[in-house]
Amino acid sequence: MTPPLTDDNRYAALKDKETAKGLPFFLGVTSTGIFCRPGCPARLPLRKNCLFFDKVQDALTAGLRPCKRCHPLGGQHRLLEALMADILEDPSKDWSETALQAKGYSPTTLRRTFKNHTGFSLSDFVRWVRLGRGEKSLQKGGSVINAQLDAGFDSPSGFRSAYSAMFGRPPANTKPSTAAPLSIAWHETPLGRMVSIADEVSLYMLEFTNRVKMIGQVKRLYRLHKRPIEAGRTAISEQIESELKSYFNGDLTAFQTPLTLTGTDFQKQTWAQLQKIPYGETRSYADLAVAVGNEKAVRAVAGSNAKNGLALIVPCHRVIAKDGGLGGYAGGLDRKIALLALEGVEIKA
Ligand SMILES: [Zn+2]
Question: Residue 326 in 3-state DSSP?
Answer without folding.
Answer: coil
